[in-house]
């Protein structure tokens, strides 16, 4: 059995890009009967941004509901809140002792903050809390706690994964090779990068998103706002954001047909938008219904978390056991 692990930050509303680029590929991976998948909502990691407590609670719940609704709800997937597996924090404390400060000084996120402070003429560590600085140790603990073989991550997380491997090696040098499992493989996320309303990468920071679970009428209105050029219905057209969205969400025959009509001319952007809105709704309605139902019935959500967290706690506790034993505690 291959153990796959991914963490997802409880950031605001999920958008179509998050789903196509991260959640759907993860659900596809997790559907493989040879895999057991641990998926955690990274609420401890989120604390370094000092979120409002009520907002954090709300976002964590919504993220759990979204993961379950998007297909991560079968018995080989264990969904848990990072904070509810105390062994992860314990392993962070243990790993701190084989982590050189220099390694953390070189971590991209911290370095970017220091550089921004330098540019503004401030103290290098202005506004940097230890949650930010030690983030890579916590992430290593996430991975090593579950003895994960594979950790699918986006490119921005690649360095953190390297640090996790580095800490596992440092631990092995100090306390022997058989204690922690080294992550065996890093999978790039396979989903394509989805463009947003303005044609740039769909991203919360650009404000160009279509929310995954917005009502169909809201999604249709946003689809209308997708920026197109001034070509007339009869003109041939270049594949654009509308085509990218159709490729990602429409049934393949429809997407192919529209691609053909872009090549030859004979369809207007308005008609493509109407068709796209319908296809989006058809693709997303079942997930949206499951999502709404999960948020409405907190018992089902709590049950799923109880099961996932029991499982994750058991696995992480085994890791702590061998670590403390090796370290002489
Ligand atoms: P931010 O603007 O805060 O960076 P975001 O909207 O880009 O937010 P992230 O939280 O950075 O979203 O990304 C969450 C996950 O979704 C990551 O795995 C990322 O690779 C994926 N993702 C984000 N945007 C896209 C996109 N447009 N296409 C494909 N995948 C995406
Ligand atoms: Mg991003």
Can you describe what's shown?
The protein is mostly helical. Helices cover 56% and strands 6% of the residues. Strands 1-2-3 form a 3-stranded parallel sheet. α1 (16-30) links the parallel β1 (2-8) and β2. It is globular and about 75 Å long.
Rg: 22 Å
H/I helix tally: 14
Rough outline: globular
Measure the end-to-end span: 31 Å
Order of helices and strands: EHEHHEHHHHHHHHHHH
Strand runs, count: 3
Reading side by side through the largest sheet, how are the strands ordered? 1-2-3
Q: Mean pLDDT, nearest integer? A: 95
Short recap of the structure:
This protein is mostly helical.
Defining traits:
329 residues; binds adenosine-5'-triphosphate; binds magnesium ion
Give the topology.
Layout: E1 2-8, H1 16-30, E2 35-41, H2 43-46, H3 53-69, E3 77-81, H4 86-95, H5 101-105, H6 108-119, H7 130-133, H8 135-145, H9 158-175, H10 216-224, H11 241-249, H12 252-264, H13 269-296, H14 298-327
Parallel strand pairs: 1-2, 2-3
Helix pairs in contact: 3-13, 4-8, 4-14, 8-9, 10-13, 11-12, 11-13
The structure holds adenosine-5'-triphosphate and magnesium ion (MG).
